[in-house]
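Collaborator request, handled under Task 6.
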Amino acid sequence: MEATGTDEVEKIKSKFMSAWHNMKYSWVLKTKTYFSRNSPVFLLGKCYHFKTEESGELSTDGSNFDKISTEISGNVEEFRKDFISRIWLTYREEFPQIKGSALTTDCGWGCTLRTGQMLLAQGLMLHFLGRAWVWPEALAMDSCDSESWPSSTVRKLTASLEASLTADRDPRLLGRPPARRDWDGTERRNELYHRKIISWFGDSPLAAFGLHQLIEYGKKSGKMAGDWYGPAVVAHILRKAVEEARDPELQGVTVYVAQDCTVYSSDVIDRQCSCVGSGKAGTKAVIILVPVRLGGERTNTDYLEFVKGILSLEYCVGIIGGRPKQSYYFAGFQDDSLIYMDPHYCQSFVDVSIKDFPLESFHCPSPKKMSFKKMDPSCTIGFYCRTVQDFEKASEEITKMLNSSSKEKYPLFTFVKGHSRDYDFASSPLHEEHDLFSEDEKKRLKRFSTEEFVLL
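Structure tokens returned to the collaborator:
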């Protein structure tokens, strides 16, 4: 009876905390995002120019967007389309109960898991869809933060709102999604993959990279549902999740996590050259995750140019980072400000197992910007390489970037030839039988857990 009473108390406590978090995180912070007209904007390797003859900033309240030429406006729209097409994963509520807890929401504690999911989702989008892909319906989304977009968009949203308040409008039309044009074979194939990728991140126990699965892998490093996770721990959890994924579509992808800021080239290539699927020959694409610190207590601004250089690469899949006590997914920059997607927005659970589940809540309608100086030094950088040749080319390019940007004696991280075992480090085998983490990995994960900042 006592145990039952304790369970009931935990359930009541969980419901109370859930209600508080839902109230706290369901509000959208109405802040204006400004983009300079005189500086390029980079988003995961793509460069956009908003330059006009006039100087100043693009005021996102719509006060001076009418002065922009059609050509520049088009570039703004291309940027919008590209940004909205990235997969956005946020706090959710009312999803199936997490095993071993009474939790049905991750509000207040799951932000780093969400930013890790976004980084992995971008890697899978590069793998299955390519960097040039954009969601055909991206610009049809209504922005939840209209201040972030041009006046033309604001006018459309205002007109839509006014129309919805008039008695002349058929109430049956309200909320109806925009009409879908006829898609050709390639577009249909891409849309299937688009939905499939999102479904892998669904908030249910069966989703390969859903919150429920990630928490199960986190238990191996001593983490539980409701705990805070740092960027390095999440990197290792993502690696395990990809290794354990059983979907045949995912057998051609692997994840490598750098050891002590070192990428061992032979270990990466071994992962790429391991069997694909059921004994088939071939090479796997690899997502390389590098946990680093960009300084001591505060971020060292000497690393700014390197971070900008990384986000300028098309094979970069973003950065799991944030500011102290908040995790963000960094995807681009303009000048000395980072562009990010924020997981701290509580949305309702979406059942991704049903046909034609709604996609809108998985795409962020407005970008946010933050000064590099405010970035917390703990982060994980991600890259995607489709082939061994791509990896070798990337390692050379990034090494040059590391050497040129480093004012210190040692670069932020390094690529070295050979295996980790050649340098007397314990290497983790490609296939572990029972325990998901080796003893060496557990020690490293516990060290990361104690060293990293607390995320809310």
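The cover message to the collaborator said: "The two ends are 35 Å apart (CA to CA). The longest helix spans residues 2-25. Please let us know whether this matches your experimental observations."
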